[in-house]
Amino acid sequence: MKRYSTILIIIISLLFCMACSINEKRDEALVGKYIAISGKAFGLNLSRDEITGFTIELGVDGQAIMVAEDIRVEGKWFNDDTTVTVKIDKINMVGTISEDTIIFEGFLKDQVGASIDLQFAREGTDVVYP
Predict the structure, then answer these.
(1) Cβ(94)–Cβ(100) under 8 Å?
(2) What is the 8-class DSSP label of residue 130?
(3) SS3 of 26, please?
(4) What are phi and psi of 61, to 5 degrees?
(5) pLDDT by residue (tens digit) across 24-77?
(6) What is the C-alpha to C-alpha distance for residues 32 and 30, in angstroms, rounded to an integer?
(7) What is the spatial distance between Cα 84 and Cα 69, in angstroms, rounded to a whole number?
(8) 8 A C-beta contact, residue 92 and residue 83
(9) Interstrand relation of 44-46 and 54-58 (parallel, antiparallel or unpaired)
(10) Calpha distance 75→62 (Å, rounded)
(11) Cα–Cα distances in angstroms (integers) from residue 46 to residues 1, 17, 94, 118, in the given order
């Protein structure tokens, strides 16, 4: 009886792990470095010069690295068909996926207290260099 209980617990654990991994899909087509190309904060449009040095890198292993000037933070990322979510600590930042861009609306709104919209373009694409 003890053996059957152990097997049952293992099966339930495996099913739970599979359910978690299904919810956190990572599309390898999104892997790469994204550079901030435009933004809007406090009702003002931000120029490329004002957001230079702001990048997000999505790794194959689900690792996400966000850099703003000299500040670097690490987290995880996953996506569904239309959005990508970057999770750093307990903060989820959700961006809308386009062909070579990701647009984050209300970026860090709860942390900053104001709506900041940022558009990132995949490094090496024509969108980065208009």
Answers:
(1) no
(2) -
(3) coil
(4) -85, 10
(5) 677 888 999 999 999 988 888 988 888 888 899 999 999 999 998 888 999 999
(6) 6
(7) 23
(8) no
(9) unpaired
(10) 8
(11) 66, 42, 20, 9
Alpha-carbon gap, residue 95 to 84, rounded angstroms: 5
Structure-token match 């090496």, residue found = 124
What percent of the chain has a predicted confidence (pLDDT) above 90? 41
- Return the amino acid letter for 72: R
Q: Return d(Cα 85, Cα 92) in angstroms, integer.
A: 6
The whole-angstrom separation of Cα 61 and Cα 70 is: 24
Q: Return the C-alpha torsion angle 43, 47, 50, 51, nearest 10.
A: 90
Which tokens hold the place of 76?
């995880």
Structure tokens, 100: 């070579």
Residue with tokens 């009702």: 43
pLDDT digits (tens, 9 = 90+) for 77-121: 999 989 999 998 888 899 999 989 999 998 767 776 777 889 999
Burial class (CB in 10 A: 0-12, 13-18, 19+), 93: buried
